Amino acid sequence: MRVLWVTNQPIAHLRKMLNLPIGQSGGWMETSYASLNDAKDITLGIATIYNGTNLLQESADGNDFFAIPSKQTIGYYDPNDSYNISQWRRTLEIFQPDIIHLWGTEYAMSLCALKASEGKIPSVVYIQGMLNQLANHYCDGISLSDQLRSVTLIDIKNNNFLWKQKAKFYKAAERESEILNIANNVIVESDWCACNCLSIAPDCNVYRSNLPVNPIFTNYNWIYDECEKYSIFTVTGGYPIKGHHMLMKAFAMVVKQFPDAKLYIPGTSNIFATDFRSRLLRTTYDVYIRSIIKEYNLQNNIVLTGRLTPEQMAERISKSHVYVMPSSCENHSSSLIEAMIVGIPTISSYVGGLSQYYKDGENGFFYRFNEPDVLASLIIRYFKDKNLAERIARNGQYSQRSLRNAIDLKKDFEWIYSSILEKN
To answer: What is the pTM of this model?
Structure first.
């Protein structure tokens, strides 16, 4: 069985082909590839676009890798462009897949691959995020007046205001609908995701599969007596969906009681940049976050870690006191799952499909996204109550390690692929 994976970023050998480092997102694709790498009945083709002129192809691990040339960046990729379609058609002709597996609906290359196949090749979509819901919640918690006050020159130049970004998500949701209705097969992890897919494509076939997590996270264990007290670790931010604006407001309340508290934020950021070029590159959301930090005088309490490898991420989680997942919308949140596997006490906004595995008061605590005072109260409870922190941490780790250890992705995907081929 030959399966072409369409990924929104280079993974595995593709990174080597294009001389790129491991990305901060999309780790589930890397781990999934490793899980299927020795599948005797499946030969994978991994394809993504790159800024170049030649179709690149190499083989590794018994699989084929394709870097497809594009004259457009990924955010502006045109799925109706004849050149783009022709490059995907060439890839399909070379690899001859039995099935096309699309990793997400976020980018137009997925639709372009479907157009190139002209309905002749069965396809399935693994749902990474529901774009219609991301659009609905994109600017939650940020008033229009705050958006206007924070507008930057770079966003004016690029016509990239927050409300414009929200509109782009709605536009992308239209493409998502087209992809789901053409593919007519989806892989989901939660009832929430399944319901959203069926509301968009009522006749689509829904398959279930939980993805494995990078095993590096199982090598680390949170220990209360060894963690940095009154420290918090969170998700990578950079745009409103990740909810850092609400987290900052909650953190300000925490700092009133714990002046030495620290908030560690992974990823690159221009929030504290001092050089002229980096300051010019600040986005509206950067400026808004910076305004909250300055209002509550949090500059000395926030640590920007920069880009972290999976191992560095696991180590930083294990050293922190509490983990917070503050997003306004999430499908399954691999970051929260990774934190639970390390065994740190966690708190999460009540969003998306998280309630499928996250049980309030048992293996973590939920709060409503727009209630930062509740989030602050939960953080403080963990800071003050060692027994509570250790109990929730222990339960969280046990629940996630048990769930992820039971995953047999190779068996799941073989069954899903075979089922789709039988129906076609």
So the answer is: 0.91
CB distance 330 to 192 below 8 Å? no
Residues 134, 115, 112, 30, CA torsion sign? positive
What does the H/E/C string look like for the chain? CEEEEECCCCCCHHHHHCCCCCCCCCHHHHHHHHHHCCCCCCEEEEEEEEECCCCEEEEECCEEEEEEEECCCHHHCCCCCHHHHHHHHHHHHHHCCCEEEEECCCCCHHHHHHHHHCCCCCEEEECCCCHHHHHHCCCCCCCHHHHHHCCCHHHHHCCCCHHHHHHHHHHHHHHHHHHHHHHCEEEECCHHHHHHHHHHCCCCEEEECCCCCCHHHHHCCCCHHHCCCCEEEECCCCCHHHCHHHHHHHHHHHHHHCCCCEEEEEECCCCCCCCHHHHHCCCHHHHHHHHHHHHCCCHHHEEEEECCCHHHHHHHHHHCCEEEECCCCCCCCHHHHHHHHHCCCEEEECCCCHHHCCCECCCEEEECCCCHHHHHHHHHHHHHCHHHHHHHHHHHHHHHHHHHHCCCHHHHHHHHHHHHHHHC
Q: How many CB atoms lie within 10 A of CB 140?
A: 18
Average pLDDT of adjacent 10-residue blocks, the chain of 424 residues: 94 90 67 83 94 94 94 89 96 97 94 96 95 95 95 92 94 96 96 96 95 91 98 95 97 98 93 83 92 97 94 97 97 94 98 93 97 98 98 97 89 95 90
What is the distance between the alpha carbons of residues 377 and 386, in angstroms, rounded to a whole number?
Answer: 15
**Residue 15 CB partners (closer than 8 Å, separation 6+):** 21, 22
Could you tell me the two tokens for 402? 């048990």
Q: How far apart are CA 155 and CA 279, in angstroms?
A: 13
Round the CA-based radius of gyration of the chain to a whole number and report it: 22
Q: Which amino acid belongs to residue 304?
A: L
CA 99 to chain centre: 24
Count CA atoms closer than 13 A to 6's CA, side-chain side.
31
Measure the CA–CA gap between 7 and 129, rounded to whole angstroms. 14
User: For tokens 């910076």, what's the residue?
Assistant: 290
Are 288 and 147 a contacting pair, CB within 8 Å? Answer: yes
What tokens appear for 199 in the block?
A: 């509301």
Q: What's the CA gap between 363 and 347, in Å, rounded?
A: 9
The closest of 61, 64, 75, 58 to 5, measured between CA atoms, is 64
